[in-house]
Write a structure and sequence with these properties.
Blueprint lengths: L7 H16 L4 E2 L1 H9 L5 H8 L4 H14 L14 E2 L1 H16 L7 H11 L4 H8 L4 H12 L15 H5 L3 H16 L1
Parallel strand pairs: 1-2
Helix pairs in contact: 1-2, 2-4, 5-6, 6-8
Amino acid sequence: MDIERMTVRVQKSLNDAYSIAVKNHNQQVDVIHLFSALVNQEDGLIPNILEKMNISVESLNSSIDLELKKLPQIHGEGISSQGVVATRRINEVLIKADEISKEFKDAYISVEHVMLAIIDMETSTSIGKILKQYNINKSDFLKVLSQVRGSQRVETQDPEGTYEALARYGTNLVELAKKHKTRSCNRKR
C-alpha cells in the first residue's frame, strides 16, 4: 500500500488508530481502531456525514469504545509500543479503499473510501453490528456523501477541507440577494 496515495486525513486516521490501540493496551491495530479514528476525527468528513444522517456521533463513539474494551489487552514491563502490529483485516480494508478510490476516479485514497470499505467488508463483525444498530448503510452514506462532495474529485492530499467550503467559510451571494430583494419588496408595500 502506497502511503503517498493516501490523503493527509487517512494518514492521520491510521496514526490515530495506532495510538488508540496503544492506549487500550492492544497488541494489534485492527479495523475497530481505524473506525474509531475516522469517527473521532476533529472537523472530519466522516463525523460530518454521520451527523447529516441524523446519527449521534457521541452515542456511536460510546458503542465503539465498548467494543474496544472487549479486545484482548496486554500488560507488563516487557510491553512496548513497538510491538503493536497491523492486522490482515486492516490491510484488506485499505486495499478495498484503494479499489473504491479508483471506482470514483480519484487520484488519492480519502476517508470516505476507507469508510465505504469498512461498511462493505465489516458486515459480520462487531463493527457490522454497530453499523446495523445505527442504521449506517452504503446507500444512505453515499447519498449524503454526494450532497457534501458534489462532483468533486480527490485530486490533492487534502480534499476534505474543500468539501462544503462555501457553506463553512463563504457567503452565499444568491441567498443574500434573495433576502435583500425580499426585504426591499416588503418595504415598498
